[in-house]
Amino acid sequence: MRFNEKELVFLSRQPSERAAELGMKGPKKGDVMKRRLVKLIVNFLFYFRTDEEEPIGALLLEQCRVEREDDLNFSIVFLDEAERKYVFECDSKEQCLEWIEAIIKASYEFMRKNLVFYRSEIQRLTGKVRIDPLEQYGISDETRFQASSGLPPLPPPPT
């Protein structure tokens, strides 16, 4: 997927949901763990050299899987390119778990599933069937609007 470089640089300068210096290893054979400033902004994970202001790359966090490798490491694997695996090294177990949770929640697919779940819960509890104004923006629980990942659906959020 191609993106406008100027727009990505602009987005990378916006306030982040999460930011830290992490170890990062890219998907190429022979890549080594390097210290990078990593910023989670909306559904992009930007990474920077620690002494530079412009990102050297960005990962769109859609159609990917986040996995815990061990206490300090997690990885991001893209579903359509299983060999494209990025590994991140955190400073603590807690930091690792926080990053995993934040990245999972950053995808639009996760947000859409939450919207659909809570909308159906409201309907179940109130008995009211309403036409949802969000559908005019293409947010729908119809299968034709869902991205297929080949993975089982996420469990509903806790109540």
UniProtKB/TrEMBL annotation:
| GO cellular component terms, A-Z | cytosol; early endosome; recycling endosome; trans-Golgi network
Q: Which Pfam families match?
A: PH
Top-level lineage group: Eukaryota
Instruction: Name all PH domain ranges.
Output: 15-108
Q: Which GO terms describe its biological process?
A: endosome organization; receptor recycling; retrograde transport, endosome to Golgi
Which PANTHER family does the annotation name? PLECKSTRIN HOMOLOGY DOMAIN-CONTAINING FAMILY J MEMBER 1, SESQUIPEDALIAN
Protein name, per record: Pleckstrin homology domain-containing family J member 1
User: Which source organism?
Assistant: Electrophorus voltai
Taxonomy of the source species: Eukaryota, Metazoa, Chordata, Craniata, Vertebrata
